[in-house]
Amino acid sequence: MRLTPEQIAAFHRDGFLVLPNWFTPEEVDLLRTETYHEFGNDQPGRILEKNGAVRTVFAAHKTNDTFARLTRVSKMAVPAAQLLGDEVYVHQFKINAKLGLDGEQWEWHQDYLYWLKEDSMPTPNVLSAVVFLNEVDDFNGPLLLIPGSQKLGTIDLDVEKKYSELDAAESWKPTLTADLKYKISKRTLVRALEDSRIVAAKGAPGFVVFFHGNTLHGSSGNLSPVDRLSVFISYNTVKNALLPMDKPRPTFISERDFTPIDTLPDDALLAPLDSHTSPQSEQLAPLAG
Amino acid sequence: MRLTPEQIAAFHRDGFLVLPNWFTPEEVDLLRTETYHEFGNDQPGRILEKNGAVRTVFAAHKTNDTFARLTRVSKMAVPAAQLLGDEVYVHQFKINAKLGLDGEQWEWHQDYLYWLKEDSMPTPNVLSAVVFLNEVDDFNGPLLLIPGSQKLGTIDLDVEKKYSELDAAESWKPTLTADLKYKISKRTLVRALEDSRIVAAKGAPGFVVFFHGNTLHGSSGNLSPVDRLSVFISYNTVKNALLPMDKPRPTFISERDFTPIDTLPDDALLAPLDSHTSPQSEQLAPLAG
Q1: pLDDT of residue A285
Q2: Which residue of A119, A135, A220, B228 shows the fewest CB atoms closer than 10 Å?
Q3: Burial profile A259-277: b = 16 or more Cβ within 10 angstroms, e = fewer
């Protein structure tokens, strides 16, 4: 499951790559079952929407064997390493619920800006691989991306602040802070769209999107009754390991064990549970077959 | 500008009717200019989003001559009367801003349910005609509708409450009240979609959507930099006039003058301002030409 040179070139041009049918229906069924299991589990990494519905569950790969394997199967970890050009580890793992009717909007943002400011990640050479577990259409909050927006580089917060002040000069504009800490200004969005357009990642269950840490993305609220479950695995290179900090974020949000992934064969996801080492063990052994 | 029998049949089948290019670019320019003028005007009918941006301006037709004429031009008022089968008056007038990046989501709802509960409107034989003043695409929060959903009738709030309690039995579901007072339950939405699908009203500036008071509709937040301005004129029949109430809502939200509309010719919108009677006058006279 290595990417072709054309796929790698497309990722570097667009800042993302969509891979249809990357997981089989059986694998998707397993991942969906495990996802609902995690939603029902009151754990520190479980974050709620404003309305109280589950929004995100962080770090399920540290306790759930299926998700541990998901981070390691070749078709996830090998493309990540190919696209970043180095050995990778999992910086962040989260399941986004985006539940039918209850899942709320995510405003436009760059992931890397958070990891730079909150985690001292030195460079934007990082990506996320997202597995979608439902049919995604226009109405259940597809991941929206702006092709080429990673080429704007990492957004400068001082510039954004000045842009927002300029925009707020009109009296009917927002007076309150946005939901996101590092929300981009409308002017930056307009700039990103000058030679581009918004693209919605839609498709049958099991498709995957790899996207660069500086690619602008967001999503609408889910106005469909169909959940839009997705698993985000953010792979970082070992060379881009986080710098030491006084008060690092909890490791369920920001990993500080930079040991590179020991990959598993692609059929490992559906292999019996007792055939491999527990994810809690110090050294994860690859499956024999 | 009378509707054809086929258009009337489509409205009764689907609960809505989309009319492309119903207003000319010049008319749309005028309406857009007047819309921004109203946004800047701090008035009782101006409602803000949670983020402080303008969400809605009610009743601009009572003070703004252009919007007064808009409610009366034949291509708005005549189809309304045709579709409802009786003389009409304007029950409610509002401009929805849905500003680029700042416009927030509207959850699924039926307009008539509000007018029944809040205004004592006796029957659902009422409709809204919406003029869209921008190009609407998938990303600036198109009006979403469910064809045929008006045939479910007016939603019963006791049934909805029971449905919501059943849904809330799962622990990852919402615990807080929704934004909308009369939000429909997921079960009702699923029922409405059993033999239907969600449709997005998209198109070039100047298209109009007529939709029935019981048609389920909503819209996502605006994740595009392009505003999605729209003017909602809710026409009610004189026979369906509101019943007396102890504490009626303000007339800028709910009209209690049931005088039928005196229509204007379709070119009236762009006619010079001094050529017709002021909208504040008791009796609105039709334009000569």
Answers
A1: 41
A2: A135
A3: eebebbbbebbeeeeeebe
Name which of B52, B54, B176 is nearest A50 (Cβ-Cβ): B176
Contact B218, B105 (CB under 8 A): yes
CA distance B28 to B22: 10
Integer Cα distance of A92 and B275 in angstroms: 66
Left (φ > 0), alpha (ψ -120 to 50) or beta: where does A39 sit? Answer: alpha
Residue B55 banded pLDDT, cuts 50, 70, 90:
very high
Q: Is the pLDDT of residue B185 over 90?
A: no
A288: left (phi over 0), alpha (psi -120 to 50) or beta: alpha
Contact call for residues A277 and A284 (beta carbons, < 8 A): yes
The Cα–Cα gap between A51 and A53 comes to 6
Report the alpha-carbon distance of residue B15 to residue B216 in Å, rounded: 9
Which pLDDT band, with edges at 50, 70 and 90, does B195 fall under?
very high
User: What's the CA gap between A7 and B58, in Å, rounded?
Assistant: 51
Alpha-carbon gap, residue B176 to B174, rounded angstroms: 6
Please say if the pLDDT value at position B278 is more than 60.
Answer: no
Cβ separation B139–A198 shorter than 8 A: yes
| Helix A25-39 / helix A65-72 crossing angle, nearest 10 deg | 130
Contacts of B138 in chain A (CB under 8 A): 138, 198, 200
d(C-alpha A162, C-alpha A180), whole Å: 17
Asked if B81 and B87 touch (Cβ cutoff 8 Å), the reply is yes
Order of strands across the sheet with A126-132? Answer: A16-19, A208-212, A126-132, A230-237, A88-96, A54-58, A46-48
Mean predicted lDDT score pLDDT of chain B: 91
CB contact under 8 A, A189 and B144: no
Return the pLDDT at A289.
37
pLDDT on residue B49: 86
Does residue A161 sit in helix, strand or coil? helix
Across the interface, do A221 and B170 touch by the CB < 8 Å criterion? Answer: no
Cβ within 8 Å, pair B198-A100? no
Q: Give the pLDDT confidence score for residue A173 in this predicted structure.
A: 62
Q: Report the pLDDT value the prediction gives residue B280, as an integer from 0 to 100.
A: 45
**Successive 10-residue mean pLDDT values, chain A, 289 residues:** 95 98 98 95 88 92 97 98 98 96 93 96 98 98 98 91 75 60 87 96 98 98 96 98 95 97 96 59 40
Q: Quote the CA–CA distance of B31 and A240 in Å, as a whole number.
A: 53
